Structures are given as C-alpha cells and as structure tokens.
Amino acid sequence: MKALHKKGNLNEFLQKGSDELKCRLIECWRLWARLSQRPPLDVWTNWLLLGGRGAGKTRAGAEWARGMANGDLFFTKRPVARIALVGETYAAAREVMVEGQSGILSLHHDGNRPTWTSSRRRLEWPNGAIAQVFSSEDLDALRGPQFGAAWCDELCKWSNAQETWDMLQFGLRLGDFPQQVITTTPRPIKLLKEIVADERTSISRMTTDQNRANLSPGYFDRIVNVYRGTRLGRQELDGEIIDDRPDALWQRDALERARARQAPDLSRIVVAIDPPITGNASSDACGIVVAGRGWDNRCYVLEDKTLSAVSPSRWADMALQLYQKYDADRVVIETNQGGDMAESVLRAADPALPVRQVKASRGKWLRAEPVAHLYERGLVSHVGTLPLLEDEMCDFGLEGLSTGKSPDRLDALVWALTELMLTTGERPRARVV
Q1: pLDDT band at residue 247 using 50, 70 and 90 as cut-offs
Q2: How far is CA 381 from the centre of its chain?
Q3: Which one in 62, 218, 315, 410 has a CA-CA gap of 20 to 30 Å to 35?
Q4: Tens of pLDDT along 69-95?
C-alpha cells in the first residue's frame, strides 16, 4: 500500500480498481480518519469526543461501533456481541446513530451490512453481534440488559443524564474490558465534568473547522464566521466546555448581551500594560489591552494583545504598535514591580510616548470591583470577541483565578477602564466633525 502514496499512483490505482475494491477502500476508516477520530492508544474505559457541530464526532462513534461489532483489529481484539447505543430520545438515536448520513447503516456497502429491526430497536450483524438502541427518557429499559461496549451520543442533551449514565454503567459487564464512547457537543453539566475528571477517560477534541472539507462552504459564511469566538461559537463550533464561576465578578451572558460589532467615534483611547516581573519562560504574561471611551460616555474594549514570556523590549514594541495603530492618547503602565524601569523601557521605544505610571495600593479584587460595576451599569462593551480575556474575567473570584495564575489580561483591562472612566481631571480630545 505504501506505493500508492507516491505522486499519481493513488488516482491511477482508483481508476483501474474494481468497484468492490473502491468500496473497501472507502470503508477503510483507518485510511481517512483524522487523528482526533482514531481510538486513543492509551488504556481507557471512556473515550470522550468533544466536538463542534459537524466536526465528525458522529462518524467516529459510528465507525467505532461498527468496528467493535465486526471485530476490526483497529478497534478491538475480537467482536463484541452486545453493544448499547444510547441517545437523547429513541427518535434521535435512530435518525442520527443508526439511519443518519454518518450513522452505522451508512457505513456498510457489502454483505456485512447489519439488519435494522425498528420495532425491536436493534441492529444485528451477520456474525451475530447486536447493537440495541436506548433513550435517556426511558431509564427502565436499561435495567436488565448487559453489554460489552456502549456508544453514547449527545450526552449533554440527555433528559436524565446522571440517572441514564448510572444505569448504563451497571450494564457494562460483558467481555474482558468493557468500553464506552461518548460523542457530544459540550455543555457545562456536572456529569460531563465528572467524566472529564475521571482518570479512566481519554479525551479527543475536534472543531467544526477541522471538517471543513465535508461541509457546505455556505455554512461557514452564514454560520461559522458569524459565531466564531463568541461563547456560543466556542461551545457549538470549537467543542469547548464554557462555564461560569458562581462567585466571579463577571458572567458570560452579560458580556454577550453588551457585545458590539464595532466601536463608535471615540473621544479617548488608551493602551494599558500590566508588565511581568521578569521576561523568562516561567514569568507571568504581560497584559496589554486597548480600550476607548466614546462620545456616548461608554467604554469599548478594542483589543487584547497580551504576550507570554517575552522580554521587556518585546512588550514595549507591542505597546508602541498599538498606540500608533489606534492613535491613542496615552499608555498606562503598572509600575509596582519595576518602578521607573518599566517606563524607561517604553521611553527607549519612543521618547515622546505619553506614559502614565499607576501603582496598585489595593488588592486585585478591590481594584476590579468598580470596573465590574461599570459592566453591570451597561457602560462597557467588547468590540468583537476577546475569548482569552473573557475567560479570565469569568473565572476571577475573591481568591483570584481558579488556576492560581496571575490575571494579567484582566489587570490590564482594569487599568485601562479605570483610566477612562474612574480617573477625574481628564479632558477628552477634540471631536473631529
């Protein structure tokens, strides 16, 4: 088969090959599957495929179920006699997992195709392997049957997620090593978090973009490009688990409601910097945020250009580029750690740069609280999407970030909005008519 990979050989081979051979090649999943769609090489009980809409997770789940039933060595050492197929409802399981465009039946083009008996809700392969369909709405149906494998589709949409999952676990008791695959677009539900945290879980992540070749170009223009970077887009297209921290100063829904597609005319623009103590790989990031104040007396956060583990000259150059790009009024820099040295780094980049030093006399929470109040009053909008900054904002509680890391992006945001909205004595620049 290696010779087929030489230039021109594959097309020539396909043209000369028989229809039967072409079908076999098409069905050879190991040839076409992306890395994220291939079974993990490590030992696992749960294989969790977190993917966006149209990312290819259903195809991966169906191929796995087919491979387990047929004893395909790409998936298992021997055929699995009993498989559970669990969906949100019976209708959803049938229409997606069994009869769908990427469902199990669509993968068979020869005499090995299983028989689908709708009244009994089960597939039966010629070798005797059986896959039975179950619904999260019917818990009792999972009491009694036993399986050697299970495919759970769209777990985050299940009606009785925890109860259905529990009943399924009791039934996974056949064979040497029962396994289950979970294919889902994530939502921040408790069960999904528990599965992610389980040491027996191997996780594959896939995005809608990765399956672009198999999707309509119009879908990307009409849907993907519109939602890209938003909370909904990161969840539904990128397959990320987007969660809010209950004690955080900011919540994602509020940020989404206030989001702006573009900024109006601005009376002031500042570049705010929260520099790291050092510039090596182990130091904090250098927070750099651009924000402006409009003639409507509202603030607009324009850009987050935070840099990780860079030298002082590198972040100074970035600040100067942003100052020039936005025709800003001032660069604001926190100097608690570096004192006048931080300003001198900026002066080296441009001696005429208008710089204001700010020093933190209170803790991060106390500094951030008045800025969060500006958001609550509807006085701040983010222009476009700023996902990494918003992640920090919605994970910032009284004890800081849940990761224990420094909130460098958030610090820079706080300094920018404090300068624009909470510092007195500043005159707006003349408005150009």
Answers
A1: confident
A2: 23
A3: 218
A4: 999 888 999 999 999 999 999 999 999
